[in-house]
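Lab manual, section 2.4: Encoding a predicted structure.

Procedure: take the sequence of the chain (148 residues), apply the prediction step described in section 2.3, and record the output as structure tokens. A sample record is shown.
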Amino acid sequence: MNPEQMLPRRSLLLGAGAAGGTALTLSACSGPDSDAAATSDAAASSVPAGTPVQVGKVSGVKVGGTATGKVNGKAVVIFRPDEKTVLAYDAACTHAGCPVAPAGGDFECPCHGSSFKGSDGSVIQGPARAPLAKLKAAIDGEWITVTA
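Recorded output:
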């Protein structure tokens, strides 16, 4: 996986501390970060359903890029189509529930090969037949927020 597909871990963790531990923890391809060990449990704590959660900084996802994360223990994927918009989807593949991963500007399921468009979550290639479930996402200042 390309490191550009992930929001910077250090930026996310700094945001998690600033948000009182309610920000979600994003996946990372690198090894364990010593700062991450101290904050990962707090960052994964639950917030009431329907509450926007800071995912990471907007600057961490380039236009046309993707990222992954968790909101209330649920894996999510993010796509940024332009400077002013972010989209979020439940990362569970609609075929068998495996977590999809960023693949350029789209998402792929490593279990059975389904792929989904980042721009709308629709199926590019099966066996999945249904699109990824869309979540509410927004840009709030310098932060990406997701409601799940």
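Check your result against the sample. Strands lie at 53-57, 66-71, 74-82, 85-90, 101-103, 106-108, 115-117, 123-125, 134-140, 143-147.
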